[in-house]
Each structure stands twice: as C-alpha cells, then as structure tokens.
Amino acid sequence: MNELVRCLLLALVSIGGGFVQRVSGFGLGIFVMLFFPHLLPGYAVGTAISCMMSMAGSGYNAIRYRKDIEFRMVIPLICAAAVTIPIAVHFSAVVPETLMKRLLGIVLIVLSIYFLFFSKKISIRPTVTNGILAGGLGGTLNGLFSTGGPPVVLYMVHAAPEPAVYFATIQFYFALTNTYSTIVRLLSGILTWQVLGWFAVTMVGWAVGNQIGVKVFDRLNGESLKKVIYTGMIISGILMLTQ
After folding, report:
1. What is the spatial distance between Cα 29 and Cα 120, in angstroms, rounded to a whole number?
2. Across 197-206, average pLDDT
3. What SS3 state is found at 79?
4. Is residue 1 part of a domain?
5. Which of 1, 143, 180, 190 is deepest in the core (most CB within 10 A)?
C-alpha cells in the first residue's frame, strides 16, 4: 500500500474513532480495530496504535477529572490486568496473524451481541473477587485486541457510587493499563519509529473527530449510533471469520 494512502486512511479511521468516542462515550478501540488490521503491516502493530490512542485519550480525561477518581476501587482490577496484559501481548505477537484476525472476529461478534441485547440486563456485585476477574479478562482483551473495556465497564458501573466517580475512575484505569500495555509492547520490540509515526497520524485524526463530535453531540441520537456500530461489528467479525 502506498504510504501516503495508508496515512490518509489511518487519519480517516481515527477521525471516526474520535467522533464515536466523543458521541457515545466509549468504543474508540473497538471502532478502529475494525479497520487497522487491514491498513497496517502486522496485526500487532494495529493493536499497539489503538492502545496508544486509548492511552492518550484516557490520560487526558483522567487528568482533567482527577478530583473524582476513587483509587481504591481500581486496585483489584489493575493488579489482575498487570498479570494478564504481558501474557496476552506476547501471545498476540507470536501466533499466526490469520488466527488473531479470526479471534478478533469472534470477540467483535460477542461484544456486539452483548452490547445490543444484554448490557442493561447483566449486573456484577462490586466484590474484590469480581474486580480481579473483570480486571484479568479486561487485561487479556487489552493485550490481544486493545478492546479491554467491556468487562471493566460492567464491573465499574455497579461499583461506582455516582456517574462522575465512575467516569473519572474508569478513565484512570484505562490510562494506567494502556500505558502499561504500551510499555510491554515497547519492550517486546513492537513499537518502532515507523509505528510511532503512524500513531502521530492517528492522533491528528482523533483530535479532528473529537472536535466534530463536540459540535454535533446534541444533534445525534447516541443509542442509534451505537446500534449502527454494533451491527457493523457483527458484519466485520463474520468477514474476519470467513476470509
């Protein structure tokens, strides 16, 4: 693929990712991973860039809303994720790319079905054990696909006493775990100067998409947008399984 074309496509996808995140409140990693594996030379590179994008966005929000962070709430999740992230990153770097794309297809289908039909019906008690399980599963999905949000969101939405605490605390969790995951990828040799250059391109796109989302936020139906995205996830997942 021509490098200029690659950068333009990465920027366009990242605009969409920034827009989706601003309008729906989450989903950056899920959205961009629908496209990154097809645009970048290596599945691991796509997950690395998606992870760094999430790290930067969550870090910004965590700093901005730091007064509402409940640090004790995330200790079990972070401890569990610290164990599973490096294992998952190593796994994603050594297994065949075809297998990773098929696994991602399965994950996209499962996540979309969960969000479409079960996200408002399932609740998890905020115990230490459940926090460890949610953090471990989230860390695994983070390291494999940069889509580690759903298990943690499911736990945190019931553990946080109010929306402001939930938002700030989960942003802190994502910032910390994505930073850790990025360091693991750096030590694994996945991050190169070329990869960092592509990351810079995606962040320009993310900033544009975020600003567009700010301007049209009040005019869009967030729930309808989510349904469109989840349907796209199912289609993309099926294509990844059948290709």
Report:
1. 21
2. 94
3. helix
4. no
5. 143
Residue 68 domain-assigned (yes or no): yes
Token pair 């953090």 in the structure block, residue? 135
| Confidence at residue 17, expressed as pLDDT on a 0 to 100 scale | 87
Taking only the tens place, the pLDDT of each residue in 8-36 is 999 999 999 888 777 665 678 778 888 89
CA distance 176 to 182: 10
What are the tokens at 107? 């994950």
Angle at 168 between CA 186 and CA 129, to 5 degrees: 75
> Which residues have a Cβ under 8 Å from the Cβ of 137 and sit 6 or more positions away?
84, 148, 151
Residue 207 lies in a domain: yes
Query: In terms of residue numbers, what domain contains 202?
Result: 47-242
Mapped to the 3 state alphabet, what secondary structure does 131-182 carry? HHHHHHHHHHHHHHHCCCHHHHHHHHHHHCCCHHHHHHHHHHHHHHHHHHHH
Is 119 exposed, middle or buried, given 0-12, 13-18 or 19+ CB atoms closer than 10 A?
Answer: middle
Gap between the terminal Cα atoms of the chain = 20
Report CA 211 to chain centroid distance, whole Å. 19
Structural domains of the chain, count:
1
* Residue 225 pLDDT exceeds 70: no
Torsion angles phi and psi, residue 26, rounded to 5? -165, -175
Average pLDDT over residues 195-201: 94
Convert 112-143 into a string of H (helix), E (strand) and C (coil): HHHHHHHCCCCCCCCCHHHHHHHHHHHHHHHH
Predicted pLDDT of residue 170: 85
